Amino acid sequence: MSEVRNTGRKTGEVLLDLQRISLSFGGVKALTDISFDVREHEIRAIIGPNGAGKSSMLNVINGVYHPQHGQIVFRGKVRQRMHPTEAARNGVARTFQNIALFKGMTVLDNIMTGRNTRMRSGLIANAIWWGPARREETMHRAKVEEIIDFLEIQHIRKTPVGRLPYGLQKRVELARALAAEPELLLLDEPMAGMNLEEKRDMCRFILDVNEQFGTTIVLIEHDMGVVMDISDRVVVLDYGKKIGDGAPAQVKADPEVIRAYLGAAHHH
Ligand SMILES: Nc1ncnc2c1ncn2[C@@H]1O[C@H](COP(=O)(O)OP(=O)(O)OP(=O)(O)O)[C@@H](O)[C@H]1O
Ligand SMILES: [Mg+2]
């Protein structure tokens, strides 16, 4: 079964189904009884005020946090407790709210680290540049070069990441996530702190990734213009609870969402 969304995008079967997820840290309830699904090829946005539990939700999806209650169904199977590296091996890649790159390493080397979960020959074999490892290295390099071209960052490939302006660092982080060739890509505020032009570029890249690689995307974003433009469906969180879920226009007109989030000027 597939559906055509308001964006004109065709989405498929449910890829990820979060069922009644609850997560707390000591006395702090970060997530309370949250359910929603993500369909293949969808761009699914998560919005809500600061501290609502958005990043925690992504951390649950890629195995950084383990919810005390609830169940995660991925590709139709209940997923067992999983470490982030296993999640990565199972096709889940992400970027972080605070850029997590090796600042002293070049753009190219940072993106190469995104291939780690796909490297069969161990690091030692790769280090001594030996037989199968060499062939594998060549293949990984080619993939990384393809992503560098795709995100238009050829001119900075040898630059240490720490020397780049913030907007470009965000793009490099996206490149590293793409290097893992994920089926599901989790983006935590990929446009935060960007100027208009940088935002426009990032929107275009996200749409291109979704369209050309068929990647399913879960995106946390505060800019409602962006959310309205690129997402198929939106989940709204507030104080760890889900208060809205639906097409962008529907969510935007929801009185409870307006009261808790859109009407107020308390975010960022
Ligand atoms: N590792 C942790 N230990 C303790 N509390 C945490 C931890 N991670 C998140 N929390 C708490 O869980 C709640 C939700 O935080 P989370 O970072 O998920 O919110 P958010 O919606 O991403 O907010 P923001 O828009 O500011 O990024 C907050 O009260 C936060 O303090
Ligand atoms: Mg967050």
From TrEMBL:
A Pfam entry, by short name: BCA_ABC_TP_C
GO CC list: plasma membrane
Superkingdom assignment: Bacteria
UniProt entry tagged with the keyword Transmembrane: no
A GO molecular-function descriptor: ATP hydrolysis activity
Keyword Cytoplasm: no
Matching SUPFAM superfamilies: P-loop containing nucleoside triphosphate hydrolases
PANTHER family from the UniProt entry: ABC TRANSPORTER ATP-BINDING PROTEIN (PTHR45772:SF1), CONSERVED COMPONENT OF ABC TRANSPORTER FOR NATURAL AMINO ACIDS-RELATED (PTHR45772)
Entry protein name: ABC transporter
